[in-house]
Amino acid sequence: MAKALALLSGGLDSTLAIRVIQEQGIEVIALNFVTVFCRCTSHGSCKLEAVKVSEKFGIPIKVINTTDRFLEIVKKPKHGYGKHMNPCIDCRINIFHAAGDYMREIGADFIITGEVLGQRPMSQRKEAMRIIDKEANLTGLVLRPLCAKHMEPTIPEKLGLVDREKLLQIRGRSRKEQIQLADVFEIKDYPCSAGGCLLTDPEFAHRMRDLIETSDADVNDVNLLKVGRHFKIDNTTKAIVGRNEAENERIAALFKSGDYLLNLIDVPGPITLVRGEITEEKIHTSARITARYGKSQFLPQTKVAVRKSNNGTPAKIMEIVPMTREEADVLMINKKNDFN
Question: pTM, whole model, 2 decimals?
């Protein structure tokens, strides 16, 4: 029996690709990738959807976290970015490299994906797919069942492991054919179609671009981008201000050596984390920002506690004037502000 390794995101397309191949009596094993840039990694949903599909279809699955390698790719992608900070071609090459290694390890004959020709403008073009397969050393070994009839026959098709006539010819960004096919296979409760990568989100991408231009970003830095309001005190220092209790807790949890934590005294308000090359003047500015987003914003003066550690070390108390909205808006990192 032929054996296929499926790249399974848990979305509809990769789920359908598995069913199309299973219909030919081919054994399927699934592989799922997660990174810090996955929109739902923080609460496990990306992994959960893939696991749910594997359990429903009765196939084994392996989950691989590729964050460290992928973060380096995001900093300097060989094939450039998409519309925002998404290095889609380099991302696919990275994933396919790992998938190729696992395919050989388990003795699978080929790889299948849920890709549809023309669905994504950067990575799902014929030329891009050819580059990805070649640079991952998988030319002829990646079968895309949903659009296979628009592509050249792959090695498993040529060897008779897969019946090309039973493959599909879906093309473009419309989801109509996939939804109809889901009804045929009685696949229900699948996730809505939406970009699963934070790097395609314009606001997050703007923060990410600023981060890699001004620091040697690590995973902690990227996780910090996901929460709070972000302010650029200068090119070397940032302040991240929580918007609610959950974000306050997350920001405090991401504290690392060299950071400062600020919070209001006597009145409710946010926790602020200050990171970078920190001076007394920058702490003062960050304290004023903190007061701007607490109940103290309407007071003439307020007190802010400043800690260089979150382990209970006594805080320094500063009495400051809350920053005005106009002053804060100038420092906030968003698409409207140019920091270059």
Answer: 0.86
